[in-house]
Structures are given as C-alpha cells and as structure tokens.
C-alpha cells in the first residue's frame, strides 16, 4: 500500500487519525493561521492540531470551513489549557473551543498538561464529551507514566493518545513503552526538536544517502516508529517538504542509530517541573 498524507493510525476505539499532521502553535490568529491551514489542506494534509492556549482556533476553524473539503475528511484536535481545568471549567472551555472553531464536534480533545489535583476531574468532563459524540476521541498531553497510572486507576474510558515532546534527542522510551502496554498511541509535539540539531552527523549522512533533508529523516524515523507527528510550518514549501517522506524507508539499523541520539534533552518544560 502506498503511504501518503492520508495514511492513518488506528486509536483503540477504532477512530483513524492521519499519521502526519500540521501543528499551529505560535501561528498568529487571523490571516496568518488561515493561510497556513489553507495551504496545508491544499497540499493534502488532513490533520490539524490546535489548542485554546494557541489563541488561533477561530482562524483554524474558518480555514477548515472554507476549504471546500468535507468536514469528516479533516481530523481536528484542540486542547483544554491549565487554567481551564476542573470538571465544570472544562465543560465551558470545550464549548468555547467549539464556538471559536465554528464546529459541531472535534476529532480529538486533549488535556494539555497534567495539572496536579485537577486532571482527574478534567478527564471526567472529557469522558462526557466522548459519550455525547462531541469529541470522536479523547486523550492527554505531557503525561508521564506516573500521571497515567494515577489517571487509569479512576477512568471509565482510557485515553486514546498521549501527545508528548518527542524527537531524536528526547525519545521518551519509558513513556512510550507504558503507553504501548495500555494501547495509548503516542503523538509527538516539537517533532523536529525546534530545528536545534539538524546538523547532527547521523542525520546529515542519512539525508545525503536518501537525497532528503535532516528534517525529513526525523519525520520518517517517527513515522516508522509508530509515532503520530505534527510538524509546524507556516510556509507552503516547507509543509510540502515535511510531507515528502513516503518514498523511502530507513533500515532497522538506521532507526537504531537515530534512537541512540537520545540525551533526554527537552526544548519545553518537564511535566513535573511546569509552573502550574
């Protein structure tokens, strides 16, 4: 089967999520995010990841609605921010996100960070959105095994995804193994490590071998490692480049060499040290 931007991974509830999508963190609302999403959809992306914290849901929704693409063909993710958490607050936050997006439902709703003392109540609200059909899938973001262990002890519905910072210098093996054991798919944010080490010799040598860029090598490594990934770019040329990873395959040895770049090095905060 030919892999492409419509290639999907299956969540444990049977919902299919495109394995490669577009992230829009720090893309300004209005024309900027509208153009960014529109160009991605024109290229063939069918998975858009936003959040209330990004303050660009309105522009994202407008592009989706005006793209001419049937709503059911586009996978839309948004998230509840830390100061919106707790059962009642989350119900309001979710409705606010739907209103800003101008959509009747989202495909995936995530708890953005494991706010101590709140994420369990937040999760109860997410279970309701799922049962009501307002969210086709629900999940968490930035949860470590101990957060998941705590959450799973008290849920009706298991998270379907854990979106975490993940790139070759932060491979998060322990969290990935825990999630695999519990049938929770992994999604990578900051999948290119904010482009901080694209000149690494392992990546540049592979890029040369396959006539690709180091960024394409990383995205392919994630794809072959069963990691859903959402690289961000506001430029159509780069969006196209990020999607051009389906015409080559890394060997198992090459995957191991990239795995070995891990330094437990984050570009964002550690979930246990975040200033909640």
Automatic annotation (TrEMBL):
GO terms for molecular function: oxidoreductase activity, acting on the CH-OH group of donors, NAD or NADP as acceptor. Substrate binds at residue 112. InterPro entries: AKR, Aldo/ket_reductase_CS, NAD(P)_OxRdtase_dom_sf, NADP_OxRdtase_dom. Keywords: NADP, Oxidoreductase. The active site is at residue 54. Residues 20-262 form the NADP-dependent oxidoreductase domain. The record marks 79 as: Lowers pKa of active site Tyr. Pfam families: Aldo_ket_red. Belongs to the aldo/keto reductase family. This is Aldo/keto reductase.
